[in-house]
Amino acid sequence: MRIVIVGIGGRTGTMFAFELQKVAEVLGIGRTREVKMIQEKRLYVRKDGKPFLFEGKVIQESEFSKDFLPEMIFFAIKNPVGPAIRYYYQKIKDEKKLPDLILSQNGIVAIREAEKALRDVLGRRIEEVRITRVSLFNPVDIQESNGKFYVDYFSPVRIAFSIEDDSKEKGDIKEVFGRAGIEAEEIPWKKVESMEFSKLFMNLIGMASASKGLSIEKGLEDKETFKEEIMALREYIKVVRRKKGGFLNFRHYPIKLFAFLTDFLPIAILSLFREKLARVITKEREGKLKGNLDEIDYYNGEIIKLGKELGIDTPFNQKIYQKMKERLLYQPPSSVKISQ
Fold it and tell me: Is the pTM of this model over 0.90?
């Protein structure tokens, strides 16, 4: 199987390319800076603490053409994803067989943006493209040391995924995930929205702490910050319910249960367990700091937007959003630090 991964050189794109190229023909596409870094042998994958030089076929965005027509295009880039989808599918829209689409973006709008972009470019042929939505659970870092970059994560790679129409006779991404050793939990497409709601719930944990420059552990140990974390989650739960959505319990992550306890138990009771909860979450995230802070518009910002549409006040999410925007305004996203 041939797979194009858009976003090579970034954390998620590099990780998936490293894992999938063991069982598929992978073409990585990145910006000039990232491609040059790979060509100069300065990009490493540090998996389970052991470094591996990242090697593989990579090209720049402008070099993509129908000459390498894959079965799947995997978009491992940050939001918004719509413009990138338009760009790549515009180049191959007249081909007899169109590649399927894989999305791994954070937030809950990637599918809608993808469908709109595909419809704009393909029209009725949108029905020929099957969408697979991926939610990644592993925390992934990228660090620089002496001019070299290390994409750092632990195995196994754990994901939940949902396929739009499993009846279409196309390349089976489920088999690819399995052969690559990726621990993949399949969610029926009718529950894909709940999968997205559940993953966003996980992403929101720690945002109040990060908005103050605190690690998740330090933030949850602080009573006032812990309260902000819980209240922001409760606002989100209320929004999801108003949209008639729900949460899921994944194999290793009982989000539905945690959301219920967050909403049901008094904060005074929850606060008794805040230090233990901080340790559990820190361990689950393998001690890595909160990432993707520059995607605040797709985290707390999306909750604020939905709250306005549904007539629900979201003051705690607005407070977190504003604080984070201020931090990003005065410091570029790559330099925003969280204290230990």
Answer: yes
